[in-house]
Amino acid sequence: MLEIQAKLRECQVATLTSTLFKRGLNTRFFSGLKPLTSDKTRIVGEAFTIRAIPVREDLRAAVGKGGAPNLHRLAMAATGAGQIIVYDGNGCADVSPLGDIIALALRDKGVLGFITDTGVNDLPAIGEIGFPIWGKGPAGIPGGAKIQVADWNLPIGCAGVAVFPGDLIVADETGAVCIPREIAAEVAGEAWEVEQLEIFMTAEIAAGAPLETTYPPDAETRARYQVWRQARIRP
Q: Among 78, 82, 79, which Cα is nearest to 1's?
């Protein structure tokens, strides 16, 4: 899995989305989500899923009085190093499931980032902490006003994407994409090859090669690419 993730780190989300689309998987990109703390960050990790439901006021009151467990805190505590939280918040863009203090705790335990179909509070402070978040935008209302955590580490739907625990998440300045764990190695390999070819074509055009025969590459360009690629991977 480490080798797969290393290849994915060299792949843009747009390339991965296109690779998945060619396989008939066209619902893998998280719709409407954008980087909220930095547009220069790329993260790759395994999905840890959290599902929220519309709030039930009596249960919220019971949590406040200590008569019921705080599932939100328990879910956050269950996360681990190298994971990326994917939070299904019913698309509530005006509420936030975390702020800077929780973000700091997650960062310090090795959680790589947070993908949510909600808004997020304390974004300037979270940006300074260096905890990457993709979501719908700033939100000043606490999540508990409208939603409450129901369970975690189960399949969820977030921003139009079905996410299973352990799926591979890649997020960058374009947005975030979810790759089914079962095909992650194949997708990583295919997308990595596309990235390498594009690096080569860019260098060719920068050196004066004609666009017409370089992009898309004709037979001669592909032959030069194979020589270039073999030279790059030699020990």
A: 82
